[in-house]
Each structure stands twice: as structure tokens, then as C-alpha cells.
Amino acid sequence: IPPVITCTPLLNTSSFSARTLIANISDQSGIPFSGTGMPRVYWRINSTGNWNYTTGTALTGTQVSFTFGSGVALHDTVYYYIVAQDNAPIPNASALPGFGSTITSVNPPASTVPTPPYAYIVIKPISGVIPVGMGKTYATLTDAVNDFNSCELVGPVTFELYDNSYPSETFPIVINPAVGLGISHPLVIRPKAGVTSVVSGSSATGILKINGAD
User: Mind spelling out the 3-state secondary structure of the chain?
Assistant: First the structure.
């Protein structure tokens, strides 16, 4: 029976630094943490890059730490998967994700890469008070929210509306649960002081939709 591997996949990030992935790897015969059979993460930058690997570091219990993903640039995609084998006389190996993979050992030349592997994208950071209106950072609230959905919040974000009306919106305007969005990094949409802003139109589902909200 090959090792059982579980992990929480990494979210998109605005960081260019190497990242740390924590996986749980368990097997009745144990997992080797010396020699050539140590757990590995195979990773590459974009779909045309070469596959690299990093070996895992044992933490407490069944937890194993992997650090990888340096050398990226904005909009790069990092693909990765985990491989582990056990201490059986003839080792059994498994991969996560396992879809479409054929893994016979932690050494991959005779193996088939999972289809698809895990992936994360290097995205823009966003924070601060950002003006929205004609001639501003974003011309429309639609533009502002669409960009927001593809960014990581590294601080609170306020979209400040400068115009009295916003006639060129595309409805529904959908706010997704962006990376970093939370109590310490909220999103606020408000008119600029002294301005009364009207965002109006028609939609079968809503003018402003907040996905994942209670």
C-alpha cells in the first residue's frame, strides 16, 4: 500500500519568494527521510519550464515541509506535485494529486506527471485608497472589481468613487473572495467626500454580487 498524502494547496500569491507547503504523509512501514527515497515536490515555472524538485523536511507527526518556487515573475504559473514512497523492501510510491499519474518511485523519469498538477499564479498586490472614475486609476467600478479579483490584498483596499454616475458598467459586478481578503484586509467601496455617486442599471441576478458572503 503506497503512502497517503494530503495537503492544502497553495493559493495565488503576489510574492516572488520561495513558498512553503506543508503536507501530511503517512504509511504503516514509515517514510524515509535520508538517502534517495525522501519525499519530494516536483515543480516548474509555466508549462514550458523544466521540472525541478525539492526534498521534504520532517516536522512533527506525519507533517513534511517543502520549500520551492523561487525565480518567478509577475503572471508566472508554478505547477507542482508531491511524490512519496514507503520503507517497504520494494517501495510503494504515490503522488498528490494522483489523477492520471503513474508513480513507481520518488525518482520521476519513468513516471507520468499528474493531470493536472497543482498550480498557483503570481498575481499583483493591491492596497490603499484607489480612485475610480473618468481619468482615474480605474474608469469604472467594473474595471476596478475585475482587477481586484485577480490581485492579492496586502492591506485594506478602498475604491473611492469620484463621479456622480457610472453609466458604463457591466452588470452584475461580481466581487469574488480574493486572496488576502479578510477582517484585517477589507474591501470598502464609497463615494469621495462631497460626491453623491449613483451606480444603476439592470441585471437578472443583481447589480452587485458578493460571492461567498453570508
Answer: CCCEEEECCCCCECCCCCEEEEEEEECCCCCCCCHHHCCEEEEEECCCCCCEEEECEECCCCEEEEEECCCCCCCCEEEEEEEEECCCCCCCEEEECCCCCECCCCCCCCCECCCCCEEEEECEEEEEEEEECCCCCECCHHHHHHHHCCEEEEEEEEEEECCCECCCCCCCEEECCCECCCCCCCEEEEECCCCCCECCCCCCCCCEEECCCC
**Plot region of 164 (φ>0 → left; ψ -120 to 50 → alpha; else → beta):** alpha
Buried b (16+ CB within 10 A) or exposed e, 5-21: bebeebebbbeeeebeb
Q: How far apart are CA 118 and CA 134, in angstroms?
A: 40
**Dist. CA 127–CA 112, nearest whole Å:** 41
Q: How far apart are CA 162 and CA 65, in angstroms?
A: 48
pLDDT (tens digit per residue) in 66-114: 999 999 999 999 999 999 999 999 999 999 998 888 888 898 876 788 9
Judge whether 2 and 86 are in contact, CB under 8 Å: yes
> In this model, does residue 213 exceed pLDDT 90?
no
CA distance 183 to 204: 30
Cell triple for 205: 441576478
User: How large is the average pLDDT for residues 148-175?
Assistant: 96
Residue labelled with grid coordinates 511524490 = 83
